[in-house]
Specification:
Blueprint lengths: L1 E2 H10 L5 E3 L5 E2 L13 E4 L16 E5 L9 E4 L2 H12 L14 E2 L4 E2 L4 E2 L4 E8 L4 E2 L4 E8 L4 E2 L4 E2 L6 E3 L5 E3 L6 E3 L4 E2 L4 E2 L7 E3 L4 E2 L4 E2 L4 E2 L4 E3 L2 E2 L4 E2 L4 E3 L2 E2 L4 E2 L4 E2 L4 E2 L8 E3 L4 E2 L5
Parallel strand pairs: 4-5, 5-6, 7-10, 8-10, 9-11, 10-12, 11-13, 12-14, 12-17, 13-18, 14-19, 17-20, 18-21, 19-22, 20-23, 21-24, 22-25, 23-26, 24-27, 25-28, 26-29, 27-30, 28-31, 30-32
Antiparallel strand pairs: 1-3, 2-6, 15-16, 32-33
Length: about 300
């Protein structure tokens, strides 16, 4: 049981702004979604459309509610950052890390690999080459990290990820017979990066493929050689072809980006887009081929 008073004190300690309505002496016993609400738990609400007719507000023990949504439960925390507040509460009061082995079974780590403090590596991994992994980084199961790779601190590399394998490059003769050529660059992943399940990040041809600080890459994404992804950007189930440059705080969702494209800071690439031209900063594009949102008919 968690007392609501303790939750409010924690939110104060991390400087989250809110207004509270209710009785802070009451308790919550776990968390749940509104769709499958469990009695006496904490839940959160982004918009009134998320409310079901089957849910009675007076049955909800504690609701984290987005500012501007006019509802009150038994106890309600109203904030401009409802999702962030809800997950901050979960992380503080309900999350428990299971104890994991430092190095899992059937994992190979070559002698030249340098591991930082408190690095954890899962089962069936191969880490082979001139590789540096920073402090507190977690590598899950069945991960392959090859050749020249530098991974920063506090990164999460989820299961099935492949980092550092050679990209696709060839030369051809006058008869169009193709000859594959080696890639001589590496991969640089800065601090606080997430690489989701089954994602591939290829090494650079000459320079490094670079994922900058704070990036979050979802599962089943593909980052080709020489690509640079800027700070705090999100890449979600997308393919970035060779030598793509992505600016800071860009958002790319389920899209394909052509080689050598430049995506500006704060750009938004909408669901299912195929980007064939550069995208300016602070611009939303959608479609096939992708065009600025206000020009799509």
């Amino acid at each position: 049981m968690i007392k609501i008073k303790d939750i409010l004190e924690y939110l104060n300690s991390i400087n989250l702004k809110y207004q509270f309505y209710g009785n802070k002496e009451e308790n919550v016993n776990g968390f749940s979604s509104l769709k499958q609400y469990k009695l006496n738990t904490v839940s959160w609400l982004k918009s009134s459309e998320s409310l079901s007719n089957e849910i009675s507000l007076d049955k909800i023990k504690l609701l984290i509610c987005q500012e501007g949504v006019d509802v009150l439960a038994q106890n309600t925390i109203v904030t401009k950052e409802a999702k962030k507040t809800f997950y901050a509460i979960l992380e503080k009061f309900f999350h428990q890390d299971k104890e994991k082995m430092q190095i899992g079974k059937f994992t190979y780590i070559s002698p030249e690999v340098k591991l930082g403090n408190n690095v954890r590596v899962g089962h069936n991994c191969t880490i082979d080459g001139e590789i540096i992994i920073g402090d507190d980084t977690i590598i899950f199961n069945n991960v392959s990290i090859m050749n020249k790779v530098n991974i920063g601190k506090n990164c999460v590399i989820q299961s099935g990820v492949m980092i550092g394998d050679e990209g696709y490059a060839y030369v051809e003769d006058e008869h169009h017979k193709k000859f594959m050529v080696h890639q001589y660059g590496g991969v640089k992943i800065e601090d606080d990066v997430l690489v989701g399940v089954n994602t591939t990040i290829q090494n650079g041809a000459i320079d490094d493929t670079t994922i900058k600080r704070g990036c979050k890459i979802s599962g089943n994404s593909f980052i080709s050689h020489n690509t640079i992804v800027g700070e705090d950007s999100a890449v979600i189930v997308s393919t970035l072809h060779g030598s793509t440059t992505v600016g800071k705080n860009a958002y790319i969702v389920s899209s394909t980006i052509r080689n050598q494209a430049v995506i500006g800071d704060n750009a938004f690439i909408g669901l299912g887009s195929v980007v064939t031209k550069n995208v300016d900063e602070n611009t939303t594009v959608v479609g096939v081929p992708a065009r600025p949102f206000n020009k799509v008919r």
